[in-house]
C-alpha cells in the first residue's frame, strides 16, 4: 500500500518501467512539493536505477547554493516564476547524472499568496540533455495545500513522460 493516490502510483510505475527499459535517469528540483515528486518515484521498487537525486530547495538560499539560481533572477522575478523554474531545472540536470530533470516552484497555501501570485500558482519546468525544455504555469487555485502539492506531482510526471517520449 502506498501513501500516494493510485493515479500517482500508476504514473510513477510507468516512469520507472519506461526509464529502466531505456536506461534513463531522472532528477528533481522541488520547492513547494518538498520532495514529493522524488518520494513518489522512490515508492516504486526498482527506482534506484532511475532516480539519480532530488534537490529540495525550499529557500532562495538553497535554490542559489544547490541549483545555481541567480540572485538577480530571484530579486527581479521572485522564487515563484518561470525564470526561476527554468534555472532550477537547468541546475538539477547539470548537477546530476540524469537524462531528464523536472523542477517545481509555487505557492501551495493556505497563506503566502498575493494578487499577482495567488495560492495555487505553480511553475514547472522539465529539461532533457537531448535539448528539450518545457514550462507550464499552473493555476490550481486555493484547493488546499495537499491538493496543490499532489496536482503538481501529477503535472510534473506528465511533463517527464512527455519529454522522454517513451
Automatic annotation (TrEMBL):
Principal EC category: hydrolase
Any one GO molecular function term: nicotinamide-nucleotide amidase activity
Pfam families: CinA
Coiled coil: none
Source organism superkingdom: Bacteria
E.C. number: 3.5.1.42
Domain named CinA C-terminal: residues: 12-162
Keyword set, alphabetical order: Hydrolase
NCBIfam families named among the record's database cross-references: PncC_domain
Listed name of the protein: Nicotinamide-nucleotide amidase
Organism lineage string: Bacteria, Pseudomonadati, Pseudomonadota, Alphaproteobacteria, Hyphomicrobiales
